[in-house]
Write a structure and sequence with these properties.
about 100 residues; alpha/beta; 3-stranded parallel sheet; two-stranded antiparallel sheet
């Protein structure tokens, strides 16, 4: 395992590893998320940094269909950044059934 200081530090270590050792250069992160998430991957050398839909402002909840469409259309080998629980800043989590999909 690898130990890192904070979520930001962990993302930076992960991004550097994915870029430098696995050659990944495309990532997707939720919209919304913390403002530094995209910058962490850009600064690690990723050339394609993209958002996937997560929040439905009208319904004030998860945009699961939009998220699945975006992630399904992501290229093979793309890195997907997920908030496993307590999505920040929305607080909206996927259900067990949605995780299974």
């Amino acid at each position: 395992g690898v130990q890192a200081l904070s979520g930001t530090g962990a993302l930076r270590v992960g991004a550097e590893f994915l870029k430098n050792h696995l050659g990944r250069d495309t990532c997707y992160y939720s919209d919304p998320t913390w403002g530094n998430h995209g910058l962490i991957f850009k600064n690690a050398g990723f050339t394609s940094v993209n958002k996937y839909r997560y929040w439905n402002a009208e319904e004030k909840g998860l945009n699961f269909d939009g998220m699945m469409e975006d992630l399904t259309n992501a290229p093979d080998g793309a890195v997907i950044i997920l908030h496993a629980c307590a999505h920040n800043p929305t607080g909206v989590d996927l259900s067990k059934e949605q995780w299974a999909k």
